[in-house]
Amino acid sequence: MNPLIRATQWGVLLTAACVAWAAGAQPATNTLGQRTFNVLSYGARGDGTTLDTAAINQAIAACANAGGGQVLFPPGRYLSGTIRLTDHLTLFLAAGATLVGTTNLALYEQPATPSSMPEARFGKWHRALIVGSSLQDVTIAGFGAIDGNKVFDPTGEEHMRGPHAIAFTDCRRFTIRDLSIVDAANYAIYFEISDDVDVRNVKITGGWDGVHFRGTQDRWCRNVNIVNCQFYTGDDSIAGRYWDNVVINQCILNSSCNGIRLIGPATHLIVDHCLFYGPGQQPHRSSNRRNMLSGISLQPGAWDRCPGLLDDVLLSNNTMKDVSSPLTLWAKPGNPVGRVTVSGLEATGIFHSAVALESWSDAPITNVVLRNVRVEFDGGGTADDAKRQVRGPGVDVRPLPVWGLYARNLGQLTLEDVRFSLAKDDLRPVALVDRVQRLNLDNFQFTRLPDVTEPFVTTNVEKMNLKNTDLKSPK
């Protein structure tokens, strides 16, 4: 839809709702056919000091009893504990309206998490300012804000994490758009086993993860779009596992951890036209660091056992600046990896670790393609750094004995029109390729230094095809 038309529709909708509020009588019907329930009509004050939880939930209940509609927050600051959503509901925060989390931790509740989910044991960890369970057709929208108010909990995870801003479980057709979310005391948006989720034009500042969503081995999250969003997060901007048909498009990701961290299986994942950059504008809450780790980290099974396939991943036309590593791909036993394609990447200021493509199970990664890639590494590695032994990965990027590419246990690896360069000299090789069945290099270029006698190291490579590529030392 044309953005101007959409904005006009919402403007008309908001005007109609505010007229109904001024009239102070029955809910109005807006131009989209929704009945509008103004929270002020149910006793909310919006003064930032009065607790408005009961009034807001009464407005939602009235909306539910009418079969659905819109619950309107006019301009104001609405202090609240947990708000429980219902089916066929639009929660609309007008420009100038802010929903603020109360500091009273006793007033937070959690969505109903199925006992079959491993996360069910987390208990109060699921608490949130806005919650939903087993719902359909829900929208949280408007041009206002949700303020998590940094409601930290000394008895929570890491002795500090409190409620999420939004948490929902087992939902269908759930939309979050046009909002700002600030200072969540845990994740800004967290959801489980939910389908057809659209997060669009949302700005997230502070807190831990921006959008974190998880399925299970038997029930994946399907059809999720995260589009035109801005992330300025202390922890991972986007994270989770068991994803199917997920699109992350035209987002800005600034983090003091990872841009995107996949901790489990995923299929049909597209990350397209996104900007990743560090250092983080918001500090990492646990360590207070600000350096950004991987732009994109695909590490199924790195945190705990979560069997399943990672396949059909396309990372296209992305830009990165001042991140530790542009891409880490790690496979562990129980997590086979099929095809991963990087098509179009511009990265500068890579300051800590090479591109890493690694299988640490008996099964090789089937096929990785890097095409039209330009990466500039800071360099500075020494001859002693080149002797570093490669050990299995943990959960974050690690130093490697090469500055550009480390590949381990792949069926096929293709580098086509790839250029790796250095900002300053580095005495490590550009690449170490180990246990690869078929290596294809077509127009692969890299900074070559006379003091590095073997700039491109291969071990146990069964077949290598070179085209427009020189791997020799300049000596």
Q: Which class of secondary structure composition applies to the elements? A: mainly beta
Strand content: over 45%
| Structural shape | elongated
The mean pLDDT is 92
- Taking pLDDT < 50 over at least 5 consecutive residues as the criterion, the unreliable ranges are 1-25
What is the helical fraction, as a range of percent? Answer: under 10%
| Number of DSSP strand runs | 35
Give a concise summary.
The protein has 475 residues and is mainly beta. It has helices at residues 3-23, 53-65; strands at 28-29, 35-38, 47-51, 69-73, 76-80, 83-84, 89-93, 97-101, 128-133, 136-142, 145-147, 164-169, 172-177, 180-182, 189-192, 195-200, 203-205, 211-214, 221-227, 230-233, 238-241, 243-249, 252-255, 260-262, 266-272, 275-277, 294-298, 310-321, 325-331, 339-350, 355-359, 365-377, 405-422, 431-446, 456-467.
Task: Please tell me about this protein's structure.
This protein is mainly beta and 475 residues long. The protein has a domain at 209-475. 7% of the residues lie in helices and 46% in strands. The chain has a 35-stranded mixed sheet that branches. Mean pLDDT is 92; it is low at 1-25.
